């Protein structure tokens, strides 16, 4: 991997960010010390990057990024176990926010009350087993915003979006590769692209998942996991087919597919609790190719989710007249790291 050599070159140029500069990053800056900006707002100016290696940053005020912010940790050279931005009041991102851990799981607490993202967020990590991402605040991903989680292999513990009382609004793009997201309240008109070996789990007993949000099962190994009751309204599902799964926390008792409107209705039940889920999968599915599964593969080395008939899959190709994913933009590739120093 080329990170090693580039990092060596940069090490001599690493500078601690002077306290007086803390509030405004106006030129490309490399930092490698833990830092507290408890009383400051931090602004990264347009066209400028701030690249932090092996650091824990604490903020007290707002964090406003018009440029690029990189937080990077390499277990081979660094000492930290966690990588984190802790305690900002709020984040506004118009540029790039990039978090990456090499040879260690990514552990991030984004303990902000509010995040507004009109740019791109990337969360990446190598040691999936130890990855843990918490983002308890209220999030707003605008139409131009993207939120990307790309891992080398699937984390056992997922990223947790939101907490009781917060709302995750996605009007842009969420993209997952080898990622697992657990979510509570979701709003918005965006797209959730569940890529290879990825799971999007939605569980809320108080909220209805919006039909305006497209869930795109974009690979053979994508999985939507729905565990909530009160979901009598149809989820909008694109890309169901080629053996990917919609999984429930209760066993499926029976299901039916309305070939005229393209809605799959599933009745699930356990301990006398019954619930019905609806999925707007679109037209053209052949009910002969529907199959229930009791052992659903969880992706990369994680084994199976086993529960009698909890999963439903479609053995055929995704039909041409199935729900369109045209509202989903292609997922962005991760940017190069580290950024080149500008002389
Ligand atoms: C499941 O079977 C019951 C009893 O026959 C029926 O009332 C219900 O509509 C069926 N559910 C689905 C999703 O077809």
Automatic annotation (TrEMBL):
Residues 321-343 are annotated as: Disordered. Keywords: Cell wall, Glycoprotein, Secreted, Signal. It comes from the Eukaryota. It holds the Pfam family Hyphal_reg_CWP. Residues 16-338 form the Hyphally-regulated cell wall protein N-terminal domain. Residues 1-22 form the signal peptide. InterPro entries: Hyphal-reg_cell_wall_N. It is found in: Secreted, Cell wall. This is Hyphally-regulated cell wall protein N-terminal domain-containing protein. It comes from [Candida] anglica. The lineage of its organism: Eukaryota, Fungi, Dikarya, Ascomycota, Saccharomycotina.
């Amino acid at each position: 991997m080329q990170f090693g050599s580039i990092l060596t070159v940069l090490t001599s140029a690493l500078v601690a960010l002077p306290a007086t500069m803390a509030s405004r990053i106006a030129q490309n800056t490399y930092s490698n010390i833990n830092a507290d900006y408890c009383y400051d707002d931090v602004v990264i100016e347009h066209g400028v990057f701030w690249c932090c290696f092996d650091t824990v940053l604490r903020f007290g005020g707002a964090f406003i990024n018009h440029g690029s912010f990189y937080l990077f940790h390499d277990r081979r050279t660094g000492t930290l176990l966690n990588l984190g931005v802790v305690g900002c009041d709020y984040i506004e991102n118009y540029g790039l926010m990039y978090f990456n851990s090499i040879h260690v799981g990514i552990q991030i607490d984004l303990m902000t009350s509010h995040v507004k993202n009109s740019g791109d967020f990337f969360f990446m990590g190598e040691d999936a087993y130890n990855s843990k991402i918490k983002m308890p605040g209220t999030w707003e991903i605008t139409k131009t915003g993207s939120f990307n989680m790309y891992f080398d292999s699937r984390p056992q513990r997922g990223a947790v979006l939101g907490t009781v009382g917060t709302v995750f609004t996605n009007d842009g793009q969420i993209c997952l590769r080898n990622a697992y997201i657990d979510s509570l309240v979701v709003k918005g008109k965006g797209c959730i692209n569940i890529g290879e070996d990825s799971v999007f789990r939605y569980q809320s007993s108080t909220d209805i998942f919006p039909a305006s949000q497209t869930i795109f099962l974009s690979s053979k190994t994508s999985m939507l996991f729905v565990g909530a009751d009160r979901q009598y309204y149809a989820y909008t599902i694109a890309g169901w087919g080629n053996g990917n799964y919609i999984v429930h926390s209760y066993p499926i008792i029976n299901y039916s597919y309305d070939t005229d409107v393209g809605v799959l209705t599933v009745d699930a039940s356990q301990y006398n609790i019954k619930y019905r889920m609806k999925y707007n999968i679109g037209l053209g599915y052949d009910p002969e190719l529907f199959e229930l599964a009791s052992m659903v593969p969880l992706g990369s080395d994680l084994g199976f989710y086993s529960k009698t008939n909890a999963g439903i899959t479609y053995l055929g190709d995704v039909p041409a007249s199935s729900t369109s994913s045209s509202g989903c933009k292609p997922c962005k590739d991760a940017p190069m790291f580290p950024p080149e120093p500008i002389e």
